[in-house]
Amino acid sequence: MAPSDGRSVQGVRAVLTHGLSLPDPVALGARAHAEPADLPPLDGEVVWSDDERIEVRTADGIYTFLNFAGTALMIHHLFGPDTEGAEAAWQQWLTGLLG
């Protein structure tokens, strides 16, 4: 989770959208791409998008990015055998994105 720094919900959403290489507005089926350090790139498809959530499905996981009250939260469900270090790497990516 990245702490609130006074950004608006729309401001956090814009940063997440840009960080995931998504168009604005985010449409179902849009292709997402992100490159967190020490992990393979995230390449997937938007399967849910509303004012507070963007959900991306990849071949090996589901990634949910939540934004509310100027705060960002990321939840991931990984299906591959090599998930060691994923939580720390995504935390670093999110903190760097919003930092």
Largest beta-sheet characterization: 5 strands, antiparallel
As for the number of domains, it is 1
SSE-based structural type: alpha+beta
Mean pLDDT: 88
Q: Approximately how much beta-strand content do the residues carry? A: 25-35%
Q: How much helical structure, as a percent, in the residues?
A: 10-25%
| Head-to-tail CA distance between termini | 12 Å
Number of helices: 2
Radius of gyration from CA coordinates: 13 Å
Which features does this protein show?
single chain; 2 helices; 5-stranded antiparallel β-sheet; alpha+beta; globular; 99 residues
Summarize this, please?
The protein is of the alpha+beta class. It has one domain (9-92).
Describe this structure in words.
- There is one protein chain.
- By secondary structure, the protein is α+β, with helices and mostly antiparallel strands.
- The protein has one domain.
- It contains two helices and five strands.
- It has a five-stranded antiparallel sheet with strand order 1-2-3-4-5, covered by helices on one side.
- Strand 1 and strand 2 form a beta hairpin.
- The longest helix has 13 residues.
- It is globular, with a radius of gyration of 13 Å.
- The model has no long low-confidence stretch (mean pLDDT about 90).
